[in-house]
Every structure is written in C-alpha cells, then in structure tokens.
Design brief:
With 160 residues, the protein is an alpha+beta fold. The protein has a single domain (2-156), classed as Jelly Rolls. The chain is 16% helix and 36% strand. It has helices at 2-15, 54-59, 139-143, and strands spanning 35-41, 44-51, 71-81, 85-86, 94-99, 105-112, 122-123, 129-136, 152-156. Strands 6-5-8-3-2-1-9 form a 7-stranded mixed beta sheet. β5 (94-99) and β6 (105-112) form a beta hairpin. The chain is globular and about 35 Å long. The protein starts with a helix and ends with a strand. Mean pLDDT is 81; it is low at 1-31.
Length: 160
C-alpha cells in the first residue's frame, strides 16, 4: 500500500509543477532522465533521482564522474525484501542506506568502495527493506544519520 502511495506522490509531482524561488518547475524526465524529488533526512536537504523501474535500478549511478554533496539516488522496490547492492561501474564511494516501508533507516553501510575488479562485492542488509538510498560517502557521518532516521520527500525539482 505504501509503495502505491509513494508512486501516486511521485506521479502527482510529475503532473503539477512546483515553483520555488531559484528553481525551475519540474518537467517530465526526457530520454535517459529519471524522476527527481527533494527529500530530507537528519535535517539535511537532498536532491534525489528516483529509480522506479528495474532498468533504472540496474543502471543506478553507474558511469558517472561524481555525485554532488546534496545529491543521491532513491531505489524504489515493489516489495520489501533483502535487496542487495553492488558498485559495478560506479566511480566513487557511497553511503548505502536501506529503508523500511515507513522510509526509516534499518541499515547503513558507510563509505562503500567502487568495484575495482570482478567479482564485485555485494552489499546485503541484515533486514528487509523497501527502499535503498545512495548518498555521497561519509554523508551519514557528517550529518549524524543512523538507524531509525526517516527520509521524507517534499517536492519535485529540476536540477539547475
């Protein structure tokens, strides 16, 4: 039910542009672009790309040169489960956070290193989760984010 509500929220953001000072209204993603939302966790503002489809989740942050300090990616899964993550073709370290149905952190793997050779390490949470949040390495340490903290999604945004 909660995944349905999140999808409705995200679709609503796609259909009703939000005008904020200094930001353009959200536009539907073009070819190769993902949905984007503003979120908050541990008092920190985040600009998140949302990976909803299996294809978007498979590509994730692969092949990118960097990730901005306030940027990240939210992976949305259809069902709660033991969703494993790997860092294949990711060029920079990340903090990996698994979130439950309520978007509360259930596990954090800080400073996961990029895969340098096959086979790549696979990061598996000890608890089931519905979402995975990838953030710049050490973001959780700098902002004091840990188990039990909650991610909230606010508005859609369009990156400058």
């Amino acid at each position: 039910m909660r995944i349905l509500l999140l999808m409705i929220l995200l679709m609503g953001c796609l259909q009703s542009p939000v005008h904020e000072k200094g930001k353009e209204p959200f536009q539907e993603p073009g070819s190769g672009e993902m949905r984007k939302v503003t979120g908050y966790i541990g008092g920190a503002e985040l600009h998140l790309e949302v990976a909803l489809s299996p294809e978007e989740r498979a590509i994730g942050l692969m092949y990118r040169e960097s990730l901005g300090e306030k940027n990240g990616m939210l992976f949305v899964f259809e069902e709660k489960g033991n969703h494993a993550i790997w860092m294949k073709n990711v060029r920079f370290p990340l903090d990996l956070l698994w979130l439950d149905d309520e978007m509360r952190v259930v596990y954090v793997y800080p400073d996961a290193s990029p895969c340098r050779s096959d086979p790549c390490p696979i990061y598996i949470p000890p608890e089931d989760a519905r979402y995975v949040l990838e953030l710049p390495a050490n973001f959780t340490l700098r902002h004091g984010i840990g188990i039990g903290d909650r991610l909230t999604l606010e508005t859609a945004y369009r990156a400058p």
